[in-house]
Amino acid sequence: MTAEWTETMYVEYGLTRDQSLIAARFQGATHTGFSKHHHPQHQLVLAARGSFTARVRDDAWVVQPGQAAWIPSDAEHDAIALNTVDLVCVYLEPEECAGIMTHASSRPAVFTPGGLMRELVLRLVQPDLDDEQACRLRAVLLDVLAVPGTTKTRLPVPTHPQARSVARALLAVPSDPRLLSVWSAELFVSARTLQRAFVTETGLSFAAWRALIRLDAAGTLLDQGEPVSAVAYRVGYGSVNGFTAAYRRHFGRSPGSRLSA
């Protein structure tokens, strides 16, 4: 990361009954972003343009253009732009959000918002909005967030046919050891084409995408009480040390700490 995103708009509304709402807009270039931090409010981040990576607690995603991330209050997170980004953030008080997203609002999520939610978020960051209007829009936003059916995603899957076949195979068996060159030979497509499809459509190289799939699978196994040594080999690492190093680089702690949490 070379610099933080530029805040191009910040609006704080003083709503009725001691409620409040903050909306902000950020723009940034590739590889800029924010290092780990947290907020006392819940945060809804809409990728109006561009994509970014987000690590929230033990979860990691690529948030694609048009998608949104839900970041719970006080959850430590970072965010790094994969290309030029335009992000709109709405900050909501935790006590107002108990029914949001049909999950507990303490769970981070990435999802594709409907048109109404998108327009609500974009409207809340406009400087000509008064407190009364913001209060009404905020109430509608909370209602929309609480509607069942929100789609949670971990990582996007490429739409390119052969790259999608590779992704689906790895989602089913994260430990699959085949290199990109092997996949390309089996699917009769060049390795360069597969690599380009992953980078263009997920924001990650094939190796980085596969690493995140493996680490996500590892987290599930660790949560089930599997020993670190067994998990390392089950998700495709050749050694426990290699797995531990990768896990620590990504999550900032050892896999053993997850077992004891």
Looking at how many chains there are and whether they match, the oligomeric state comes to single chain
**What is the annotated CATH architecture of the largest domain?**
Sandwich
Helix-strand string: EEEEEEEEEEHHHHHHHHH
Please tell me the overall pLDDT: 84
CATH superfamily of the largest domain: Jelly Rolls
Strand order of the largest sheet: 1-2-9-4-7-10
According to DSSP, the number of beta strands is: 10
The figure for the number of domains is 2
Descriptive overview:
By secondary structure, the chain is of the alpha+beta class. The chain has 2 domains: 6-145, Sandwich (Jelly Rolls); 161-260, Arc Repressor Mutant, subunit A, CATH 1.10.10. The chain has helices at residues 115-124, 131-145, 161-172, 180-187, 191-202, 206-223, 228-234, 240-251, 255-260, and strands at residues 6-14, 20-28, 33-37, 42-49, 52-56, 59-63, 68-71, 77-81, 85-92, 109-111. The protein has a 6-stranded antiparallel sheet with strand order 1-2-9-4-7-10. Strands 3-8-5-6 form a 4-stranded antiparallel sheet, with no helix packed on it.
Summarize the structure.
The chain is α+β, with helices and mostly antiparallel strands. It contains nine helices and ten strands. The protein has a six-stranded antiparallel beta sheet with strand order 1-2-9-4-7-10. Strands 3-8-5-6 form a four-stranded antiparallel beta sheet, with no helix packed on it.
